[in-house]
What we know:
Elements: H1 2-27, H2 40-43, H3 49-70, H4 85-98, H5 101-109, H6 122-144, H7 149-172
Helix pairs in contact: 1-3, 1-7, 3-4, 4-6, 6-7
Amino acid sequence: xxxxxVQSNILFLPLLFAGVIHLFVIxxxxxxxxxxxxxxxxxxxxxxxxxxxVIGFLTFFGVxxxxxxxxxxxxxxxxxxxxxxxxxxFLLGVFAMLFELPNxxxxxxxxxxxxxxxxxxxxxxxxxNQADSVIGCTLIYALFFDFGFTLLMAFFIYTSFMHLFVxxxxxxxxxxxxxx
Length: 180
């Protein structure tokens, strides 16, 4: 059981790295020329080209850094991120962003403004908001690695909860408006 926890952490680290730095990119309004909505009508104003570019490249770099850290762990805890760090990292970031789009689309269709949840089905959107990007990342890990169902589910559950936990911390620090 401890092995799945350690391995889930390893798989989560590149996403945490990208998410934390992306938050500062947003907070300090860096790369404003990329801060253009993909489609404001369908996804709102917060889903921008900047998110795709920044998360894609930061996750790419996060996988590279994590693969170095992973090489120092006992073999039983390694997941093999170093086998495809460049390609895998970029795909993780892009799929994390892609899988956020259906959630945003649904919220806009239900009348919610960017950064808000619709009044109807509020609990569903609280939960879905934590898991949407994780679904995309889990899919990439499933396609490129032979992890097995148990590790993939451990990663999905762990990362969904960590996503919420990190959002709560950033909300408390006033770096994020809405923790959900």
